[in-house]
Write a structure and sequence with these properties.
Elements (H helix, E strand, L loop, with lengths): L4 E3 L5 H12 L7 H25 L8 E10 L2 E10 L4 E7 L4 E5 L4 E5 L5 E5 L1 H18 L7 E7 L5 E4 L10 E3 L2 H12 L7 H13 L8 H5 L21 E3 L2 E3 L6 E2 L2 H14 L6 H8 L4
The structure holds zinc ion.
């Protein structure tokens, strides 16, 4: 039997690249605050996704196949799905959110508004709008591939129990599709009752899963370009694992920190530098680039 999780959850590329950029951007650069804000948001988002993935692992293995972080292309549009549940009865898209505080769903203008303690407000894209659009795109995508038997539904998942959800009206659109934390199980069981009865054979379910994985198109992210950062603003060299100083000095196979005077042999020390190079520039590194970026003498 194919395993329950067809595509595991992994730290998103954009999070890893933003972390590498934060480590490598020269001190005092004007973009530091923006990068740190973005990094905090992305870490919180990933935490929420991990919570959800832990819940989804508890679903019956013989009923659901799960794909995390799926990217598809449809007629020039990119379709990015956080979490996808496949069953013989229906397909479920789940948008995961981790936004703290008090949130208002505004049905009139389709907004999600956060009311902060200091009286200010922040607006976010209404996740219901995004999920509805993703459902339309996925339906079209599957139709083009010859699969049109399975109904598609969606849920909006808020990871934290501490998030307060409010609305100005007593009834809002798709309220039953919004849930927090463990309530996800009740929502899924409710959808099971709604979509009672198998629509496709088990073999067809596997075919759909394989097709989605084969057509997954990883996003190409140029993080330097996104933040308008030029190469000269990136620190070269190995980072000290103890005080974070860059660059350490290479001395006959060891690395010495000129700031805290640590001497290390650890391969992890320069592995991080190679990882950062791949995150910021490209996924492969030549010998000469390796020596240049790590300050290793020829
Ligand atoms: Zn140091």
């Amino acid at each position: 039997m194919i395993s329950l999780i067809l595509k595991e959850l992994a730290p998103p590329q954009r999070l890893l690249k933003t972390q590498a950029l934060k480590r490598r951007l020269i001190p005092g650069h004007v973009k530091h605050p923006e990068i740190e804000n973005s990094l905090a948001r992305r870490k919180a988002g990933y935490w929420g996704e991990r919570i959800l993935s832990q819940y989804l692992k508890q679903l019956p293995h013989d009923k659901y196949h799960i794909i995390h972080d799926l990217h598809l292309e449809l007629n020039g549009f990119r379709l990015q799905i956080d979490h996808l549940l496949l069953s013989q009865n229906f397909i479920l898209l789940i948008e995961s959110k981790n936004i703290q505080g008090t949130l208002f769903f505004d049905d009139k203008f389709n907004q999600l508004i956060r009311h902060n303690d200091d009286g200010t407000e922040e607006v976010f894209e209404d996740p219901r709008v995004q999920a509805r659009w993703h459902r339309v795109l996925l339906e079209k995508w599957l139709n083009q591939k010859g699969f049109h038997m399975l109904p598609i539904d969606f849920l909006i998942f808020f990871a934290s129990n501490k998030t307060i959800l409010k609305t100005h009206s007593s009834t809002i659109r798709d309220a039953q599709k919004i849930c927090k934390a463990r309530d996800i199980f009740n929502k899924i069981y409710s959808l099971e009752r709604q979509y009672n009865g198998k629509k496709i054979r088990y073999e067809s379910l596997i075919d759909i899963g394989k097709l989605l994985l084969n057509q997954h198109v990883p996003e190409i992210i140029d993080i330097l370009k996104e933040y308008g950062i030029v190469e000269k603003d990136i620190l070269l060299g190995v980072r000290c694992p103890y005080c974070s100083y860059i660059p350490m000095w290479y001395e006959k196979g060891k690395w010495r920190c000129p700031s805290c005077h640590t001497l290390t042999f650890s391969h992890e020390t320069f592995r991080e530098a190679i990882h950062d190079y791949c995150c910021l520039y490209k996924p492969t590194i030549t010998n000469s680039k390796f020596r240049h970026f790590l300050f290793v003498p020829i």
